[in-house]
Amino acid sequence: MRKKILAIVTSLILLASLFITPFASYAAGLTQATNASKVTYGTLSADDIQLLRSVFDADYYAAKNPDLAGKSNAQLFDHFITKGIFEGRTCNAEFDPAAYASANKGLLEKYKKDIMAYYRDFYSKDKATRATLIATLEACANAKITVTGLADDSIVISPELYLFAKASNIEEYVIAKAAWQALQKGQPVELTEDIIIIPDGALELAKGMTPVCTLSLNGQNFVWVTVRTCETGAALYSMDERNPLITVGNYEESEDNITIFASEFGVIENTAENHRNWNAEGLAEGGVVFAEETITSTGWRRPTEVHMSDSAKAYNIQFEDDYMPVDSWTVYCDPSGTENTTYTAVAGLEANDDGTYDVSIGLYNEENDFAVVEDYNCANEPIADLYQ
User: Fold this and answer.
1) DSSP 17-56
2) Over the chain, what is the mean pLDDT?
3) Domain layout of the chain by residue ranges
4) Confidence (pTM)
């Protein structure tokens, strides 16, 4: 699980290149809300829309928001004025309202979370004046100013965190924060697309989690895990939905409770027949593969952070299944695994101060020194209905 301690060590920025390889980020901006429950949508006036149209950079918005790929410039602008601005997405490289607010406490006291008010204020000034103002994350970092999100105030970006994210080419706050914390603990970090992989300590971490069941190719090879929440707590269940494996807070079962996380995970034989519809570059036959299918409120979900032992090998794959329209997934191979290898499936659950929950799933085999643990941060919202 991600820890909640953020002890800034500036010198780690200089060490980042030793541990982390910059990658092409396809994630949200650093100040974009990560907790949907904190976002408040509104309606803009005609004058506000006219102002935003005059400063909107469609190329910038498309590049920063790959989830909007294929949309026309008009559709991109419509998304920004109806959703994006309220979610903390920025529309050009010149101005980030969260940075502007953090650099101007008087304005923050005046406008509070009225994001549009900061646009009005900033763009009421002439271009020469605007160029002198602190209105971007980089300008705040250079001025040693910590930025707090407007759309989601659980986002806190110190100058050190920003500079680390920039050096590592990470654009999503959750990813940047988790990688930064891992480095602070002296853990080497690898990045594959939008997943943080922490190679060290996976076996000990897995052994310290709650056992779910044993899995093998010759017996039960997959297991379901779900997380349900009530107003005062949460519970993690496995196949027996009457008796939770883990509870946090004051959890009480009720028909009004919601499921915020569901995952089926386990082991499959690594043969060409079993993954004939995967496009898995470099995945050779042999061994046992750990795979999962996970759903949260945002739909099919990849983990934010993965802990894996040195013996484990990670591979990105491409699905062709119609029922799972995702671009890519990651599987983890135990090269020493056989049909007789028994794995212990494990899980974990923690509550966060911002109302979200950290959920972990994984498995390990101590004899093979093989372990994989996946971490997910889940909003307290019902899982998506993918079968409508």
Assistant:
1) HHH-------S--TTS-S-GGG-------HHHHHHHHHH-
2) 82
3) 18-186, 202-378
4) 0.56
